[in-house]
Amino acid sequence: MNKTENQILVIFGASGDLTARKLVPALFNLHQADQLPDNFIVLGASRSDMTDSAFRKKVVSESTYLKGKLEGLSDEGIKNFANKFFYEDLGGSYDTDYSRLRKRVEDLKNKYQTSGNIIYYLSTPPTLYETIAHNLAEAGMNTQNNGWKRLIVEKPFGYSLDTAKQLNTGLQKFFKEDQIYRIDHYLGKETVQNLLITRFANSIFEPLWNRNYIHHVEITNAESVGVEKRGGYYDTSGALRDMFQNHLLQIVSLIVMEPPISDAPEDIRNEKVKALKSLRVMKTDKELFDNTIRAQYTKSVIDGQEVKGYREEEGVNKDSTTETFAAIKFFVDNWRWKDTPFYVRTAKRMPTKATEVVIHFKTPHHQIFQESGLDSKDNKLVIRIQPDEGILLKFGVKVPGQGFKVERANLDFYYSSLAETHVMDAYERLLLDAMQGDATLYARADEVEAAWEFVDPILKYWSSGKDVRMYGYAAGVWGPENSHELIEGIGEWRNPGPNLTDDPGFCVIC
Ligand code: BG6
């Protein structure tokens, strides 16, 4: 276990939902696992008027997100954790003089001997990121002569390529790139990191990981929920910005990348950038028309319950043209992947919540077993990101009896079988990494820009109104019917079930 230096975590936007829902539970897990530094405190800062004890109540003792975790803990134990939390009211605006904040940080630092190491976590609307960075610098709180300073920023990182570039330049005026940690919580998921291990720690996959053996790659990210209470935000974002530009392109980069020369953060990040830069950017209206599909969920009845359509959701414009479903087909212009199609889709209000990558291998180049139906039984490697995390390999076996009939069998691995191992939650892992100065699982400026470079033309085309269609799908189904058209000639999307092996492999029951 790496040693974590003493430090303060300052959370801007601490009265918001993310702090109570994700950050504090992650810190609690680290606390229980004895992974927080000896001298460590959290200072929440935002515009609400709150005392330290009200903040502790809100995010710890009375937090619904911690309830289950606190059960069984003594009052003393809860207090021990809660006492690490402090709060500073910034007044009416984040754009203010931070000298009072600085004084508070200094006082806490001296009292709790946390040293001058500080993480600033920006959990505010992105429009405030640069303002906060600027005000921190004005107050001299970004200097590293007395302990390091790091800045964690939440997504969305930009709204387009231009705004992402502006944001990068804006932040880099006050913090150096190696001080900036852009969080993408998918990179904190064990199963996403395991893509690197699957590829680069196994001699059975990597030799096949290219256009010669892989027919196509399919990624599905499905959520059963709708936009919940985030209609206002979502309506200005949409599936492409909300999930595809960041989380899904991060997964794509790990599938596409070349082997890094080592596991050092910059070696891995350099390869990811190269991968993202090799995605073929769609330029013509025809390409964009043929290779992208967007849709919105419409009202429906799921399990006897009426479910609102997207346009009826709170905060959503009645005539909204924001997509809740996006499916994109694309190619990667490099030696390894030439002519291998990638299909990626993401959506809300699908039948289940599941994210998986499916590597479809080519069928054997010469078919010996004529009647085997092998064409429809390609070898597949299913990498299940969530839930029921694991890996499934589908391969052909002989059906007992005369002749050579082939069926598919499953070889599977489940993370849950590692009963002894605590699988860290994404935020827990990412916070600990930032505390230790490991940026491997954070997105670098050029990575984010390369992802926008690919996404921007699609967004522009979709907003241009040029023969772009907005399809509808009833809440609770696998997207619009025509989404299969994208994958035509190859088959259909694989619709994941709640469990990894929902579609059983071959077995003989006797
Ligand atoms: C967030 C998106 O980044 O990821 C949400 O803003 C989405 O809209 C969420 O629901 C999905 O995360 P996970 O970890 O539940 O797949």
TrEMBL record:
Pathway info: Carbohydrate degradation; pentose phosphate pathway; D-ribulose 5-phosphate from D-glucose 6-phosphate (oxidative stage): step 1/3
Entry EC no(s): 1.1.1.49
GO MF, one example: glucose-6-phosphate dehydrogenase activity
Catalytic activity: D-glucose 6-phosphate + NADP(+) = 6-phospho-D-glucono-1,5-lactone + NADPH + H(+)
Annotated keywords: Carbohydrate metabolism, Glucose metabolism, NADP, Oxidoreductase
PANTHER family in UniProt: GLUCOSE-6-PHOSPHATE 1-DEHYDROGENASE, GLUCOSE-6-PHOSPHATE 1-DEHYDROGENASE G6PD
Family affiliation: Belongs to the glucose-6-phosphate dehydrogenase family.
The name this protein goes by in its record: Glucose-6-phosphate 1-dehydrogenase
Species this chain originates from: Zobellia barbeyronii
Gene name linked to the record: zwf
